[in-house]
Design goal:
This protein is mainly α and about 190 residues long. It folds into 2 domains: about 1-140, Helix Hairpins (Orthogonal Bundle); about 145-185, no CATH class. The chain contains 5 helices and no strands. The chain starts with a helix and ends in a 27-residue tail after the last helix. Residues about 160-170 and about 175-185 have low confidence and may be disordered.
């Protein structure tokens, strides 16, 4: 049983590393695409989401291949079984049950499923965050010029909250001297 957890944990860590690299690239590209000021927010949303979702699907397929390679390395399934198909069924939690792992490797299927569920959830969270930010940027580009500056400052301040709490800025852009944080400025 320990050997199953070691193999499953190792493959999961490899897949998490792959996913981390792709997610960092996706977030960076989405930030760059969102920074452009275009007049058609719906087209921008389509232009951002199609490549991102396609890249995430390809990443999941790559991660399934990593599982299939691991299955082949430790001889998880009967010889006539398609290991890529078996890995897809486990990774997506489809669970047809038409291929059953050898008894000594029975835990790899659930470990694969757990890895797949977590990575699909992570992808979903990033897709929704990109969607949200792209829509916010679209709302800003449609606003009058005076409101764009205020909205960009508010979004920048709200994004900073993930790393550090900053004091709100006055209309001139300078920090307020009171030192007190007024949360109503962030809404």
């Amino acid at each position: 049983m320990v050997r199953q957890f070691l193999v499953g944990g190792s493959v999961s860590i490899i897949n998490i590393a792959i996913h981390s690299l792709v997610m960092a690239a996706v977030v960076r590209v989405a930030q760059l695409a969102g920074a452009r000021d275009r007049s058609h927010p719906s087209l921008r949303l389509v232009a951002v989401m199609i490549p991102i979702v396609s890249l995430l699907m390809a990443t999941h397929a790559l991660e399934v291949m990593v599982w299939a390679i691991a299955y082949a390395a430790v001889n998880v399934a009967p010889d006539e079984a398609s290991l890529v198909y078996f890995a897809f069924v486990n990774y997506t939690t489809l669970g047809y049950g038409d291929i059953v792992p050898l008894e000594r490797w029975q835990l790899l299927g659930p470990i694969t499923a757990m890895n797949g569920v977590l990575l699909f959830g992570w992808s979903t969270a990033v897709i929704f965050e990109v969607l949200r930010r792209t829509r916010e940027r679209g709302a800003i580009s449609a606003a009058p010029r005076s409101q764009k500056r205020i909205a960009r400052r508010a979004i920048g301040t709200a994004e900073d909250l993930g790393t550090a709490v900053t004091a709100p800025r006055s209309v001139t852009g300078k920090r307020k001297s009171s030192g007190a944080i007024r949360w109503d400025n962030f809404t």
